[in-house]
Amino acid sequence: MPEVADVLRRYGREYLDRCGPDLLPSHRRAIEDLLACRTEALVGQLLPCEHCGQEHDVYHSCRNRSCPKCHHLDTEAWLAARRQELLPVPYFHVVFTVPHELGEIIRRHQKDLYDILLRAAAPALMKLAADPHYVGGLIGVLCVLHTWTRTLAYHPHVHCLVPAGGVSADRTEWRPARTSYLVPVHALSQLFRGLFQVLVHQERPDLTLPESASTKGWVVYCKPTVQGPEKVLNYLGRYVHRIALTNHRLLSIENGQVCFRYQDAQDQRWKTMTLPALECIRRFLPHVVPQGFHKVRYYGLWSPVHRPLLHQLQLWLGGHASDQPPAAPTPETHPTASSSQLLRAGHPCPHCGQGLLVFMRSLPRLQRGPP
Questions:
Q1: Cβ neighbour number for residue 72 with a 10 Å cutoff
Q2: What pTM was estimated for this model as a whole?
Q3: CB neighbours (10 Å) of residue 366?
Q4: Can you count the helices (H) and strands (E) in the chain?
């Protein structure tokens, strides 16, 4: 089965030679890490199968957050933690998009403008929701930055999961929102556009936004999660620790062409797209976020400062009133696993297919080769 690393292994050197010093360090590091992931270039273990006894070399993951082979356990842990924080109320899924004219300037100044994008979206939503005409209280906003379409095109936007209601300013009353209406999206899009432009002017006065960005409407999507917040949460979880192109979508790498499948947003049918290998790499790398950038943000009731209030609301809304916040989850609520348990859970024996590989001892560290 082809992998993204195979595309980089065959055509990455040519891409590096073409880009030369213009390639961003984060992009170069992503290429190197994906090539080294689960290969002899990284430390690993010699693991025997508990069923047949056959020994196998199992090398470590690169842990680069752009790697499609890493972070499955991280995603599950993140989802489990967020499920513990859900309120027993309906939720809304809100998406903030920017005009395509801003795409290039955001791509060239990712670290600053991604940050501004997130800091404009959530406060705009919270400010409008605080109006007594709509919610009239403090809401919670979980934001996740997303930068790609299903065909790998560059399209920065923000997904938000928002409870249908908020807590009053004096923290004594829960004010539910209407079941099918949170805030007016037209007013929200205008407020979002204004905050984004103000923040850019204040923090990056050297940048000039296209004039059309001030005159055309910015699209904001806001709809209730009819199937519950769990589906949206799982959807967001795919973007927290994954990248634009996953290995299971790759179909073939032949004659300098990469073929992958994608689900059409209009008719929900699976289709295929074939790109030249260098073009596929070029589309893939812009979705590598700058090093150290946090593409998941928590605002309002979801912010760390309000977590005790969030836990208290879970009791109130669940019919278990208390003057004290609930106790922290016990280890049984969030079970932890040792490294050997994680290895046992994640590595079925490739020889017999029946047993699990058992941790034994470390393999020697080998030198990382060139990409």
A1: 12
A2: 0.84
A3: 14
A4: 11, 13
